[in-house]
Amino acid sequence: MTESTDIRELFAQALAQTGSIVAAVRAEQLAGPTPCPAFDVRQLLGHLIDTVDEAAHLGETGEARTTELRQEPLADDGWTVRYQDAAKRARAAWTDDTRLDTMIALPWGPGGTAVEWTGRAALAGCFQEILVHGWDLAKATGQPTELDPHLGEVALATAQQFVPEQQRGDFSVFGPVVPVPDGSGPYARLAAWLGRQP
C-alpha cells in the first residue's frame, strides 16, 4: 500500500466483507472454538466489534481509548445489527481528510508501549485486524476463507510491515509465523504470518 492509496476505501471494503461473515454466523455456533485460542465465536464477535469501535474512536477523536471497551450482552441474533452500527460509525469517523495525517499515540508497540502513528497507518492497522478476524470467524464457522484477493494481499503486506517476523517475541498476541504450502491464498498467508494455523 502506498501513501497515495486511500486506506478509507479499503477499510470500507473490509468492513463490508467481514460484515457478510458476521451475518452468516448461526446461533448454535456461538460457543464453538476459533483459531484465536482465547476466544470462542461469541467472544471473537465481541472483540471484532471492539476493533471496529476502536477505529471509529480513533477517527472521531484522534486519540486511542484509555480504557478497554466491554461489549454489552447481546441476544444470539443481535450481532449483525451491532456490527453494522459500528461499521457505519467507523466509516463516518474518517471522512475528514486531515485525520489521515494526524499523529496518534497508540499502545501498539512492544509490551503495549505507546508509539506515534499517522491516522492513515492507524487505520491500516485496523483494516488488517478486521480482515484477519474475519478470517478467524469464517474459519471457525465453516465459511469460505479466501475472499477478495486484493484486500488479502494488502492486509498481508500491512501485517508484514507492522508485525515483522524478527520482532515476533515483542508482540505476545502473535505467535511465530506458520509455514504454508506453495500456492496458498493471501488470507491463509495472512493468518499464518500472524501465527494462525491456516
What's the SSE blueprint?
Blueprint: H1 7-23, H2 41-61, H3 79-93, E1 103-106, E2 115-118, H4 119-140, H5 149-162, H6 186-193
Antiparallel strand pairs: 1-2
Helix pairs in contact: 1-3, 1-4, 2-3, 2-4, 4-5, 4-6, 5-6
What does this protein look like?
The protein has 198 residues and is mainly alpha-helical. It has one domain (7-151): Four Helix Bundle (Hemerythrin (Met), subunit A), CATH 1.20.120.450. The chain has 6 helices and 2 strands. It has helices spanning 7-23, 41-61, 79-93, 119-140, 149-162, 186-193, and strands spanning 103-106, 115-118. A two-stranded antiparallel ribbon has the order 1-2. Strand 1 (103-106) and strand 2 (115-118) form a beta hairpin. Helix 1 runs parallel beside helix 4 (119-140), helix 2 packs antiparallel against helix 4 and helix 5 packs parallel to helix 6. The longest helix has 22 residues, at 119-140. The radius of gyration is 16 Å and the shape is globular. 39% of the residues are buried. The model has no long low-confidence stretch (mean pLDDT 88).
